[in-house]
Amino acid sequence: MTSRKTQQEIDKTFKKVTEGIQAFDGIYEKINSSTNTAQKDKLEDNLKREIKKLQRFRDQIKTWAAGNEVKDKGPLLEERKKIEKVGKHCLTMLCELTACSVWNNSKP
Fold first, then answer.
1. Is 79 left (phi over 0), alpha (psi -120 to 50) or beta?
2. From CA 10, how far away is CA 76, in angstroms rounded?
3. Could you tell me the CA-to-CA distances from 16 to 24, 31, 46, 55, 102 in Å, in that order?
């Protein structure tokens, strides 16, 4: 049985994960619609910050999942998968942006 305090912490973390993913999606949309390079650079920094937050949440979730206090680890593993999916999406997107930047800078 998970203690009440731990369950409250888990619930707060899950809420922050959901908010972080929504923020990531919003920033990602802005990057795709922006034509201003300076604005894109700023948005990319914001995106990286959101990913770092999500990674910290993922680490906390992994700690809970590895411990003995939480018996039902299913929800923890699902939240972790959500974060990792966003992380993979971010890596793909950043690679595409980097390739575009390199390509655009190499044109005469």
1. alpha
2. 8
3. 12, 22, 16, 12, 35
**Is it the case that residue 93 has pLDDT exceeding 60?**
yes
Report the half-sphere exposure of 36 (CA within 13 A, side-chain side): 5
Query: Model-level pTM?
Result: 0.81
Neighbours of 93 (CB within 10 A): 16
* pLDDT tens-digit map of 18-46: 999 999 999 989 988 988 989 988 998 89
Q: What is the CA radius of gyration of the chain?
A: 17
